[in-house]
Amino acid sequence: MGLNLIKVKVYSILTLKKILGQREFEVSIPPGSTVKDLLFWMINKWGDKLTRHLFTPGSNSLLPHIRLMVNGRSIEFLNGVETILQDGDEFLMLPIVSGG
Fold first, then answer.
1. Which residues are paired to 93 by β-bridges?
2. Tell me, what CATH number does 83's domain have?
């Protein structure tokens, strides 16, 4: 019997779009998967370059200038990287930039 998967649409912009080579794509992941699971799936696919743009070196802590959003809401206001993804969710990786 096959495993039912959920589909999540992933959006990336700026430097993350360059690393991934695309602005948006859809992934099929097991039900109950978290934001953390999705991030590690992506790191497994895109490697160290993505890791360096998301995480503090030597840790699993997100860099302070990275915002992750599920359906337009920051994961900071949900359950962080433990936020469980649902079928049809939209996941945005947003590097915060500032300038003057």
1. 12, 68
2. 3.10.20.30
- 77 SS3 class: helix
Q: Please count the structural domains in the chain.
A: 1
- What is the model's pTM? 0.88
Burial category of 12 from C-beta neighbours within 10 Å (exposed 0-12, middle 13-18, buried 19 and up): buried
Rounded Cα distance between 46 and 92, Å, is 17
Q: What is the mean pLDDT of each run of 10 residues along the chain (100 residues)?
A: 85 87 94 96 90 85 91 96 98 78
Tokens coding 21? 């080579």
Place of tokens 């097991």: 30
- Residue holding tokens 């779009």? 17
